[in-house]
What we know:
Chain A is an alpha/beta fold.
Amino acid sequence: MSALVIENLVRTYDGGLTAVDNVSLTVAAGETYALVGESGCGKSTLARCAVRLDTPTGGRIVVNGRDVTRLSRRALRPLRGGFQLVFQDPMSSLEPRLSAHDAVGEALRIHGRYRPEAVDALLTEVGLDPSLGARLPHQLSGGQRQRIGIARALALEPQLLVLDEPVASLDVSVQAQVVNLLRELQDRRGLAYLFIAHDLAVVASLAHRVGVMYLGRIVEEGPAAQVLTDPQHPYTRALVDAIPVESPALRRERTVLKGEPPSPVERPGGCVFHPRCPIARPSCAQEVPALEERVPGLRVACPYS
Amino acid sequence: MLNLESVVVTTRSGVRLVDGVDLTVGAGEIVGLVGESGSGKTVTTTAVFGLAGPGVAVTGGRAVFDGNDLAGADLRRLRGAQVGFVFQDPSTALHPLLRIGDQIAEAGQVHGRHVDVAAALAEVGVPDPARRVRQYPHELSGGLRQRVAIAIALANRPKLVVADEPTTALDVTVQMQVLRLLARMRDEQGTATLLITHDLGLVAEVADRVAVMYAGRVVETGTVAQIFAAARHPYTRALLASRPRLAAGRSALPVIGGAPPVPAARPAGCAFHPRCALATDLCATVAPEPADGVACHFAGGPS
């Protein structure tokens, strides 16, 4: 069973802003689906809809086999333990006056399942000494805070974690530790991850599948190894090509994509990428390309690539 | 162009943020200053140019810019004229209520220079500069705002540009455009650039030389080719190894245990020793002096 099924999701706002435009994706148990794209592409809006912190304008969200698209807050409450969101900046998502132990134990308390040993076990599982439980968020390092954020999300034994840029604000040496932790937790618990990120190298080290978003649409989706090393869509190619080289010996001339993503309020007609696309044809301004399957598991929304 | 010798930066309460840094940036080169949070990479330059804020001051060593000791210099005349600064967040560098053209012109006027504003914008790759000069910062995207901030930093043709995480707030495709711009300034005008970053990828992409900082000290310096092909300090090596690689796929990353120390509680001896695989009793007591570009008792030893 898929932990998360999103079908034809649309999220528009008053004033004509379309953040997510007809996106479908599934995340299986034990799988990491990474959603990548630049700012304003709609990836965070999609993440918030997936855990129902936001309500979509159209489409369907099925989490752990249950349609949650239009459930009320009250109806969602008993289900929330099964799907959790981990934020980018744990400093702003943790209550500053709540100790690490209490932050992790909070959800257990609400559900009447609190035991100090259970919290200590969670702290140990995310690689923290239980003695750190007495500390307040500001007494912890960034990496320790993010581990607390992850332990909190794990407290009610979810099947699905939605991770919104969970390592983006961490130091390089700490980033690798947290990515490794997420991989180990997934393999041990069979968790499904919807992993929102902009750093493709971090994505490569965690993801099984990748979806690339541009201005509210998925333009390419497939196995991580394939999409990141042999990208098909011109936008994915540009993203991969813009990754800084790993060593100065690999410096090269490259065609840098011109301009920036337009505002989601003024989305171009036809293919949303056509104004920046190096291979655009006149028809691209009129026709919306379908996300078509090239080979099993690989979908690309560009007829000319 | 910029030459720092044993620079020490201290807070009012006596915490040594920067603990004896040697660094040179020559004309026509981009030097990458790499480090994690708390390493002192930002405060080193803000302190020597008098931008570090109240209570933080240079308390030791010498900072020489273009032949003049900065200790006695009129830093207000220097900043903006001979040294340009580019910061991470362009929206904080721009005045929200002034047209961007006026802000670029003002950067020249305060130092008695007339700036061709449209040409300055065209130079940093802003499309349609004649229209853009009349716009306000909020009308521009993040990438365009950063270009405007760079145009302001370059308005007086500074000899040195200090770019502190100039692309961290930008999207990857835009990041590459800004890096290209820094490289072009170096190549065409011989601008000396100090690129302060946590991202070794940016350094690999455009820098000529690298200095790696850890806990207030430079632990290793060298050309980019040397550092990336044959780093000698265990911290540099670990930092390079812990970078995720696109081709490696879903696999465990080599990690450095622990986290960088905060300036108020740095370990004795070599500050990296609690996280270092090669550390011995010597490392816990005696801080290694930099020799031949590396500060490690066991540089070049087994990895």
